[in-house]
């Protein structure tokens, strides 16, 4: 999956889900509060991985484009 826009979309959706699941931490039942902690942590992990992959792919794409133009100029 080398499409940067896909990783960015996943990162945005998972960030929204982190915020939404954070509201579950105010629930009255302690079971739901414990579940909300793990759920929020899971979505945060998905966000971190997806955002990191998008940044790395963008860096590689820019590096390739810069290298080609510099090589062609020489």
> What value does the Rg take, in angstroms?
19 Å
Q: How far apart lie the N and C ends? A: 33 Å
The helicity comes to over 70%
Class by alpha and beta content:
mainly alpha
Classify the beta-strand content into a percent band: under 5%
What number is the mean pLDDT? 82
Q: Major β-sheet, in short?
A: none
Number of continuous helical runs: 2
Folded structure, characterized:
- This protein is mainly α.
- It is 85% helix and 0% strand.
- The protein contains 2 helices and no strands.
- It has helices at residues 4-22, 30-73.
- The radius of gyration is 19 Å and the shape is rod-shaped.
- The chain starts with a helix and ends with a helix.
Q: What brief labels describe this structure?
A:
0% strand; rod-shaped; 2 helices; 74 residues; mainly alpha
